[in-house]
Amino acid sequence: MNVISNALKGIIGIVLTCIVMPGCNSSKQKPGSVKHRVEIKEMRFQPAALTVHAGDTIEWVNLDFVDHDVTELSKKEWSSQRLPAGKSWQLVIKKSADYYCSIHQVMK
Fold first, then answer.
1. pLDDT at 40
2. From residue 55, how far is each of 1, 12, 98 by CA, in Å?
3. Would you say residue 58 lies in a domain?
4. Predicted TM-score (pTM) of this structure
5. pLDDT digits (tens, 9 = 90+) for 53-98
6. Quick one: which H or E segment has residue 4?
7. From CA 35, how far away is CA 23, in angstroms rounded?
8. Which of 17, 26, 22, 16 is nearest to 93 (CA)?
9. DSSP string covering 25-80
């Protein structure tokens, strides 16, 4: 069971998408908005999929043993600095985006 669970995590960890709900277009975090945490570990973003609203904040925390970053996939509209182990970076969400680690491009 654990082997299957780990295999599924690996497959799921390949794609990470943030979905912004229609009608939400504020660029500042609003009262009542949510802060989401994405852990970077085992060369994956976890959770693998995340649904957020415009104004929500995502915090990426590097729990891996190597440096990573977080970069918007299609137009490179935003990117974090290099995140050493134990460091984090956050972004207030404005619109839907896929992202990846530009250091380890298989991490999406």
1. 97
2. 38, 26, 17
3. yes
4. 0.70
5. 999 999 999 999 999 999 999 999 999 999 999 999 999 999 989 9
6. helix 2-12
7. 19
8. 26
9. --SSPPTT--EEEEEEETTEEESSEEEE-TT-EEEEEE-SSS-B--EESSS---BP
Angle 69-70-72 (CA atoms, 0-180°, nearest 5)? Answer: 140
Q: Tell me which of 5 and 48 has the higher pLDDT.
A: 48
> Within a domain: residue 105?
no
Better-predicted residue by pLDDT, 71 or 29: 71
Quote the domain boundaries for residue 93. 2-100
How many domains are there within the chain?
A: 1
17 near 49, Cβ under 8 Å?
yes
C-alpha–C-alpha distance, residues 12 and 34, integer Å: 23
